[in-house]
Amino acid sequence: MKTKVNTSNAPVPLARYSQAIIAGNLVFVSAMLGQDMATGELILGNIEAETRRVMENIKAILAEAGTGFGNVVKASIFLKDMQDYARVNAVYGSYVTEPFPARETIQVGALPMNVNIEISVIAVKV
């Protein structure tokens, strides 16, 4: 059994996927963009601001699902430019705590809407 998670505090899916799905005690959050929900605009041009917005969007979805960053067990970061790794890692690190989630960071050729970063997470719902 799976339950769809939807909040108006995070970007609306661009295609046929959900913001997140709860299956058992796991929450699978789709890769999020750095869209500012107050303005509808994408945050581009400053990787720290874009990453912060992505993390805030994920935070909103996790809250809607009844969990938070302290329960994230896996993260996937997709970067357009690996030169941004250290700056992204600094922002990401301000949201997660020990024991840190398992994670991979992958440089990709392109991302939807020409964004610089997307992040997806898996969390435990306790």
Please, could you describe this protein's structure?
The chain is of the alpha+beta class and 126 residues long. It has 2 helices and 6 strands, in the order βββαβαββ. It has helices at 47-64, 85-93; strands at 2-5, 20-23, 26-32, 72-79, 102-107, 117-124. Strands 1-2-3-6-4-5 form a 6-stranded mixed sheet, with helices on one face. A hairpin with a 2-residue loop joins strand 2 and strand 3. Helix 1 (47-64) packs parallel to helix 2. The radius of gyration is 14 Å and the shape is globular.
Strand content: 25-35%
Rounded to the nearest angstrom, the radius of gyration is: 14 Å
Would you report the number of β strands? 6
Which blocks of ≥5 consecutive residues have pLDDT under 50? none
- Helix coverage percent of residues? 10-25%
- Cα shape: globular
Sheet/helix structural class: alpha+beta
Please, how many helices? 2
Mean pLDDT: 96
Strand arrangement, largest sheet?
Answer: 1-2-3-6-4-5
For the structure shown, list the relevant keywords.
126 residues, 29% strand, six-stranded mixed sheet, alpha+beta, 21% helix
List the topology elements.
Elements: E1 2-5, E2 20-23, E3 26-32, H1 47-64, E4 72-79, H2 85-93, E5 102-107, E6 117-124
Parallel strand pairs: 4-5
Antiparallel strand pairs: 1-2, 2-3, 3-6, 4-6
Write a concise synopsis of the structure shown:
With 126 residues, the chain is α+β, with helices and mostly antiparallel strands. Helix content is 21%, strand content 29%.
